[in-house]
Amino acid sequence: MHNASTFDFSTKIGHTWFPTPLFTASGCASSGKELAQFFPLSEIGAVVTKSIALKPRLGRPTPRMAETPSGMLNSIGLQGPGIDAFLADDIPWLMTQNARIVVSISGETVDEYSILARRLRSVPGISAVEVNISCPNVENRGLVFACDPVSSRAVIEGVRRTIGGDIPIIAKLSPDVTDITEIAREVVSAGADGLSLINTLLGMVINTQTMRPHLGGKTGGLSGPAIRPVAVRAVYQVHQVLPKIPIIGMGGIRSGRDAFEFILAGASGVSVGTAIFGNPRAIMDVQNELKEILISRGFASLSEAVGYAHREDSTGALQRGADSEESEG
Ligand code: SIN
Description:
alpha/beta, TIM Barrel, 8-stranded parallel beta sheet, 4-stranded antiparallel beta sheet, 16 strands, binds succinic acid
């Protein structure tokens, strides 16, 4: 049996190495300042910052959040300070925390993404760039680049060209498509080194008192445990067709066991998002629990477990202590 000191929990995206596979989900921890009072940010794999645009954005009208069964609907609309303020304030602060930084970017046009990539190219301390082409809270669905293979490719090609070869690119995809593997193949052939799966699902809540849509922006993105099976399915499908491409899986992860499900489906890393709102230490809890589960199942490294659910031999799973996990509840 391996133990915590011999177990290799590290993961890689492109050529960048992360000591643990736990990432914050973009948008759920801003640039990490609030989380830093609960644990050292250097202890997780990386902070994935809230998607940043070229210019400051006020976001969508309020209300911007709604509770849903086992989930949350948000309609923030990419509120943020814009790239100049972000580079002046957030990156230097994250570096003082020794945090690994994944910068999430968002644009309204293919060119905007490329301009953002150019701004980031020579910034020290950036481990990777997440290209958010899947925010559902935009004025029209034509702006959800990840719903269309041609637009997805154009954005990633532009970012790849501008950012150069040194910074890995992670494309964040939407589950609101007929075939997510088609978009995944497209962005990988355009130069993405990894994939974030999945962004929120487009949803809506009607307020039965006012008899109108509850959210100011009418529609919003659904996150939380309600979407976990959708996310696990997306990770499984994409890993099946692109087994060598690192995937950061996300969608309703609240425990190590949830995270383990994503790893078995084919994720090389996991992000914790909505759970942070209820428990700011959730990501640390998931990290510790996931490591314990992997060790107790007899894995020597995280990478050994990635995509395990795709293996045909179910006896292997039993030998790895399926009985003891069953009793976890
Ligand atoms: C938002 O700011 O509206 C959420 C961003 C996203 O889901 O990509």
